[in-house]
Amino acid sequence: MLLCDIGNSSYHFYNEREEYREDVESFNPLTCKERVFFINVNTKVAPILEKLDNWIDLSLHVKKENYYETMGIDRVVACEAVENSLIIDAGSAITVDIVKDGVFEGGFIMPGIKKMRETYFRLSNRLDYSFNFDIDLDKMPKNSQDAITYGFLATLKAEVNRHNMPIIITGGDAQKLHKIFPEAKIDRLLLFSGMQTIIKKGGLC
Amino acid sequence: MLLCDIGNSSYHFYNEREEYREDVESFNPLTCKERVFFINVNTKVAPILEKLDNWIDLSLHVKKENYYETMGIDRVVACEAVENSLIIDAGSAITVDIVKDGVFEGGFIMPGIKKMRETYFRLSNRLDYSFNFDIDLDKMPKNSQDAITYGFLATLKAEVNRHNMPIIITGGDAQKLHKIFPEAKIDRLLLFSGMQTIIKKGGLC
What we know:
The structure is a homodimer. Chain A is an alpha/beta fold. Chain A is 29% helix and 25% strand. At the A-B interface, strand 7, strand 8, helix 3 and helix 4 of A face strand 7, strand 8, helix 3 and helix 4 of B.
């Protein structure tokens, strides 16, 4: 069984042993002869895949009524992977979603690390610092770099900790956020776990 | 006694009875014959005021060792106004500073409302919503507008509430943030109070 998470820059495959990526510009999905279960947020690729019988769109097999209409399919699929967790997906956005007893309770969206750094710089060129992931968030900051790091990350941490739930971090910036949430579990393959759950629930394989 | 807080767009005056603004492009500080105690973040205006004997720069009369070197003078002056408070200054940035027993404990910086709205839009045009200041922050969001509002404001609120201190809100967006912190006191003239404290401490008047 081949799983694929398609974004704006790459096809991210997982064959249940290893993961690999193909560039969205150069990869031709017609070259794939086996069954591929996928989720996709790339609107350019969507009409091509629609015509291919062996590419199965898992978004059509999710119980959408458990979520909300405009919620990104990647968030939905990550939620399908867990029973009781707070999920942090740290990519271009940071999304935080809560699942209790297998039920989606709601979630929120923050800009990701790169976008927040840009935003502080656009606010003032005196705030052109990278974030300090080794910051001690138990102390109020007394320098500019820590003042923006704290404004971005202590606020996220305070809200996340308020929920007192097991934390799973996924996404490209998972390692960086792990420094802020050392008690969290990192699961780089969380989306693929969610896809496997949907396949199993739907009897697709 | 005339007080003035100079920003990038206006001279904000307070004559101890009323406040008024003058446009930074059209106002000529030479026309002011009385003593003006000011703080200024506008680098264009600074060399002009330096030459005028009746314009007294209060940043030269603050005990800077109580703060940190790159801290904005507006934040410093707001802190001078209080003994025990958490101050939220909601303008183009949102700054949060803590003063305990008259001592600055540290503070942090978040992008302001306008900049955060822009950032969400730059993240995805599907996140082009204004913030919902009537949101119920006790419920996890289940729609896009609330998901970004919560990501911005519930995180701020969780961190602010963790400090369990009396809250004072100032700045142009104070009324909007008051909806998120209904227990807070709004003080539009906080900076002028801080300026008066510095004048008194320094025996300048």
